[in-house]
Amino acid sequence: MMNAYLKKIMMYQSIKELHEQGFSIAKISSTIGINWRTVKSYLSMTLEEYNLFIEKRAQRQRGLSVYESFVREKLEKYQDTSSAQMHDWLKENFPEFPKTAIRTMFDFVMWVRRKYNLPYIKPLREYEMLEESPYGKQAQADFGEYNLRNGTGKRVKIYFIAIQLSRSRYKYIWFIGRPFTTELAIMGHEQAFSFFKGIPEQLVYDQDKVFIADENIGDILLTDAFRAYTRERPFELHFCRKSDPESKGKIESVVKYVKRNFLYNRCFIDIENLNEEALQWLNRTGNNMPHGTTKLLPNEEWLKEQPYLSALPEFIQTTSPEIYMVRKDNTISYKSNFYSLPLGTFKGKGTAVVVGVDMHIYLIISNLQGDILCKHMIAVGKGQKVLNTDHRRDKTVKIDKLINEVCGFLEDDANRGRQFLETIREVKPRYIRDQVLLFRDTIDISDKVSVGEALTYCLNNNIQSANDFKSIVEQQLKVRRATSILNYQSIQMNPLNGELPPVALAEPAKSSIEDYIDLFSKQS
Predict the structure, then answer these.
(1) What is the pLDDT of residue 302?
(2) Number of H helices, E strands in the chain
(3) Is 505 helix (H, G, I), strand (E, B) or coil?
(4) Which of 131, 166, 455, 480 could cross-link with 138 by S-S, CB 3.0 to 4.6 Å?
């Protein structure tokens, strides 16, 4: 059997060899299974220095042998004792106990464990199956994060909140592109309650810094924004003990389910598209497949639970409106951040708007007559520019008029063009102006034949995107260019004056076949 010294030398040699092969310290650490600081320390030593290091450690460990019986007795009685706790016990019971490194203490305790066959045994936690909570009683919430890849293969990190009704297992997920703040978490709650069509009596959470400012022996201190939010919503709070995720196992399983079933190998386009896909997934799979424990469909169980949920008020104003002056670039400055207003809001010096805050999440901006001009999510930090590209668009032309004007360029295909744009309008009403303008730009630079063929293809295949229309037109143009190049040599030149230049009529010199026959006959 290999002794301890040879094992240490082999480990040292392995570290050196991996480093020579180009392995990083972190990679060596994970490969061998030792702390990266230890790897870094060993790499800085020569073999002679390492031998001296081992010898000194062995001497220190042998110096602790006088405490062997004490350590053994403690381990026999309390087999789950850590080396750090044993270290403290020795200092407590033996005033003369020498100053000892933590690593040396760990090695000594492990040596005693091996010698007397006293392995570390983690105390088993007793579990029991709990009764299902009543309808409408409880929901659990948790956060998750995941790395997706976009169309170019680049990794994109996304964050999400998952909330599930404990009885029906009806769940909701919402994705964002940055870490959660209290304000964003509140927004996630509001969207979940709207999805559930009500609010449960109790929400269960981890002790997350998004919700908790401090915790003092069981006394939970909420963040200001979350405390204000909970006063406005009729639900109780329950925070799990630290390092005890199993007490909210239902939502832990949901987070894993989202990662393994919905997000796994999914291509990232943008956050808005991801949230649309998530709702579709919830409808067909997440809430429409029998739950592994209850064997019931969450969709059907939610119909039973929904009447037990508290009603969700549509709007809650949490701050008094204030008057803000409009800057000449059609923005306002609110708490050191800038928020855009629709083009034309600024009417000259003294132009003012009314600003209010909804649920600590949204900034509601209205004119002095009370008409809402726009709504922004409140920015985090200072010096941020919160801009809505919609505010910079020319809205003087109505959508219907714009569609009619664009389709007028199509002449014979005007009706089909209008039909195509109306189908886009049905599925993408928020982006119809952008879609129409892209359609217009595409037909401006394309020939009638390519546009007509692309329209036919889109209508026959139920394509509802101006981007796809543009791609099809471009493909048609590529095919036509390729065909033109192939047929170029077969096309006779036709100068503007109708006459071919003399050079075009010149014929290359030709060799007679008899010349080649005569040449070969001489060689033979």
Answers:
(1) 93
(2) 19, 15
(3) helix
(4) 166
User: Are 317 and 356 a contacting pair, CB within 8 Å?
Assistant: yes
Rg (CA), the chain: 37
Distance CA 359, CA 517 (A): 99
Facing residues of 333 across strands? 338
Would you list the DSSP string of 96-141?
TPPP--HHHHHHHHHHHHHHTT----PPPPP--PPPPPPTTSEEEE
Which pairing describes strands 331-334 and 171-176: parallel, antiparallel, or unpaired?
unpaired
Count Cα atoms within 13 angstroms, Cβ side, for 228. 15
Task: Kindly tell me the sign of the dihedral angle through the C-alpha atoms of 61, 67, 73, 74.
Answer: negative
Where is average pLDDT lowest: 103-112, 316-325, 489-498?
A: 489-498
AA letter at 355: V
The backbone torsions φ and ψ at residue 324, rounded to the nearest 5 degrees and listed phi first, read -125, 145
Burial 454-478 (b: 16+ CB within 10 A, else e): bbebbeeeebbbbeebbebbeebbe
Q: Which residue has the tokens 């009764």?
A: 131
Mean pLDDT over 145-162 rounds to 91
Domains recognised in the chain with CATH numbers:
4-115 (no CATH), 138-308 (3.30.420.10), 322-392 (2.30.30), 399-485 (no CATH)
Going edge to edge, which strands form the sheet with 352-358?
322-325, 352-358, 362-366, 372-377
Residue 312 amino acid letter: L
pLDDT in tens, 357-392: 876 677 889 888 777 888 888 877 778 888 876 665
Q: Is the pLDDT of residue 162 over 90?
A: yes
Spatial distance between the Cα atoms of 477 and 456, rounded to a whole number of angstroms: 15
- Please name the helix (run of DSSP H) or strand (run of DSSP E) that holds residue 473, with its range, or none: helix 466-486
345-347-352 Cα angle (round to 5): 70
Distance CA 490, CA 26 (A): 66
Mind giving me the DSSP string for 423-470? HHHHH-GGGHHHHHHHHHHHHHTS-HHHHHHHHHHHHHTT---HHHHH
> Three-class SS string for 253-317?
HHHHHHHHHHHCCCEECCHHHHHHHHHHHHHHHHCCCCCCCCCCCHHHHHHHHHHHCECCCCCCE
In angstroms, the Cα distances linking 449 to 413, 437, 446, 458, 479 are 10, 20, 8, 14, 12
| The predicted structure's pLDDT at residue 193 | 92
Q: How many residues does the chain have?
A: 524
Nearest to 171 by CA among 294, 66, 74: 294
- What's 199's DSSP letter? B
Cβ atoms of 252 and 245 closer than 8 Å: yes
Q: Which of 285, 254, 267, 241 is nearest to 192 (CA)?
A: 254
Mean pLDDT check: name the lowest of 82-86, 392-396, 439-443, 469-473. 392-396
Which residue(s) pair with 145 in the sheet?
159
pLDDT of residue 1: 39
Check if the beta carbon of residue 92 is closer than 8 Å to that of residue 74.
no
